[in-house]
Amino acid sequence: MNADIAEYDNKTAIKEFILLAFSNSQDIQIFLFVIILLVYITCISGNVSIIFLVSTETSLQTPMYFFIGTLAVLEVMFVTDTIPKLLDNLISYNKSISILGCFTQMFFFNGLGITECYLLTVMAFDRHLAINSPLHYSTIMNKQIFVALDLVPWIIGFCISFMTTLFTARLNYCGRNRINHFICDLAPLQSLACSDPFLSRRITLIAAVLANVIPFIFIIACYIRIIITICNIKSAEGKQKAFSTCSSHLAVACMFYGTASIVYSRPSGSQYDKYIAVMYTLFTPLLNPFIYTLRNNDVKSAARKSWLIKKVLEKT
């Protein structure tokens, strides 16, 4: 410990980090810039379309679609927290980010990610109620309840993120400041610290359990009950109708936790971390609107009759 302190004293505290991102040739970086920009625009457009439909179509004014709209808001914020900086990094020679900017990005990145974990849990609970207690659903899931259920994931997500960010920000940083990633995340920053990151890593581990394991177990429990109920439905039409109400959410949850499991199953600091991170940072938010549009008849119907241009023309 004394050696660590002495070593720290002999070094100057850093004022910025360098995000190495994808440090390939200039041609490859320009190619990545174009691809990621197109995907980013498509992602924003798709999620904003979902928000627009849920906000304007009376047929979608239900708790299930309210949660879908909230998920779309989350995805817009999630990609906007990371992708603009990545795009700037790809075409700029200056790849630095201030310490404040780095920890701000990390706070929102983790806060929004954890919020999504708990929102998917709330959506699973909503589908569980709709299928297992259809007669009491409207009574249980009243406006006050579903608004409260919509707020709770945000509170939990950002409280957990605040704790992990705080303990990581309190570490001493000196000497090394090059992050082999395109975002400021917990593990890369902890590995750069001059002081002992043991406590910060333990807090991160606890946060990972709270953010990923507990919600995942709850989602699995909900879908076990849902599957049992669907199997007990006698008519094939009833089974298909019941499954169609939760198939979109199940697909999104599987995709979200599937990419998360790949990330957490790999050794920390792997050179492939940043490539895998693109999957859940950009492509998962990109695919969500298409899943809800292609697999949900109500959303497809609303999309067909509610074009933005039509709405604008009607108001002029």
From TrEMBL:
It is a multi-pass membrane protein. Keywords: Cell membrane, Disulfide bond, G-protein coupled receptor, Glycoprotein, Membrane, Olfaction, Receptor, Sensory transduction, Transducer, Transmembrane, Transmembrane helix. GO terms for molecular function: G protein-coupled receptor activity; olfactory receptor activity. CDD domains: 7tmA_OR. Signal peptide: none annotated. The chain crosses the membrane at residues 30-53, 65-87, 107-125, 145-167, 205-230, 242-263, 275-294. GO terms for cellular component: plasma membrane. Coiled coil: none annotated. Pfam families: 7tm_4. It is found in: Cell membrane. The keyword Glycoprotein applies. Residues 46-292 form the G-protein coupled receptors family 1 profile domain. The keyword Aminoacyl-tRNA synthetase does not apply. Belongs to the G-protein coupled receptor 1 family. This is Olfactory receptor. The lineage of its organism: Eukaryota, Metazoa, Chordata, Craniata, Vertebrata.
